[in-house]
Amino acid sequence: MIALLGACLLAGCAAPHGGVRTADRLAAAAGMERCVVSGAGFRHLVFIKGGLGSAPDVHVYLEGDGLPWVSRHRIASDPTPRSPLALRLMAMDPAPSVYLGRPCYFGLADGDPCRPWLWTHGRYSAEVVDSMRAAVRAVLPPDSTARITLIGYSGGGVLATLIAPHLAGEVRVTTIAANLDIDAWADHHGYSRLSGSMNPADQPPLDARIGQLHLMGERDQVVPPATTARFLARNPMAAVRSVSGYDHGCCWLEDWPGVLASLDASAVAIEVQ
To answer: What's the superkingdom here (predicted)?
Structure first.
C-alpha cells in the first residue's frame, strides 16, 4: 500500500461530468479505491480493487473510446464514456484488478497537455500508448512479478494490443469487440482514418509469449468481425471466439463470470457459453 500511495495522487474532480459521476458511483459500490496516477506526460484516473502487493495475477481493464465526438462534425469537450462497460466487467472480477483511464478522460481533459487530437485522430497514438504503459507500471509495486492480463473493450482492446509488447514479464491480452484493424473499421463506416494512431493490423505480430484471446459478437455492427481479418491473419497464434447472438454491447456482462473462470484455467482454451 505504501508504494501505491506513492504513485497515486488522491485527488477528485471539481464539478465532475455525468460520465465521471457514473464511474465513481460504480467503483464505490464495488469497493474500489480511486486515485490519479502519473504516466508519461499525462495523468490517468485509476480504480483499484483487491491487494496488488503480492498478487500473482493482476487484471488491467481498458475502457472503450467513450464519446470522442458529439456528432459527426463536432468534437466532444470531454470524451469520458457515459456507460463504462469495462468498469462494470471489472466490478464482477474477483481477481486483483486495475481500471486504467486514458489520458484526458474522466474530468482531466482541461489539463495540460490535453487537446482534442488525443481522443479523436490520435486516440491510439504513441503518446497515449506510452503514457498508459507507464501508468500500468506506476500503479503496480516496483517489485511486482505478477502476470498482467490486459482486458480491453472496443477501442480499449486496440490499446491492449499496442501496450502489451512494451510490458516486461508474463503478459496476456483479452479483447472484447475490439476494432483491431482501425483502417478497415473506419473504411467500413465511411469515417476518416485515424491518421495519428497506430493500427494493430500494421504492427508486427505479438510475441508468442503473449497469450491472446479475442472475443467478438457475430451480430456486432459497430465492429463487424470481418473487419478484424487482417489483424488475425498476422497473429495466427491468437485464440478467437465469435459468439452467436452477441453484438457490440450485448451480452458481455451476463457471461463475464464464465469467461473469467475459463481465463483463470487457461490462457488459450476459453469456451464462451
So the answer is: Bacteria
**Single-letter amino acid code for the residue at 160:** A
> Domains of the chain (ranges plus CATH)?
2-265 (3.40.50.1820)
In the block, residue with C-alpha cell 488475425: 232
∠ CA 187-192-198, nearest 5°, is 85
Q: What is the pLDDT of residues 96-109, one digit of tens each?
A: 999 999 999 999 99
| 3-class DSSP state of 74 | strand
Strand (E) positions, the chain?
A: 8-9, 33-38, 43-49, 57-62, 69-71, 74-75, 97-100, 147-153, 171-176, 211-217, 239-243
Place of cell 485522430: 121
Q: How confident is the model at residue 141 (pLDDT cuts 50, 70, 90)?
A: confident
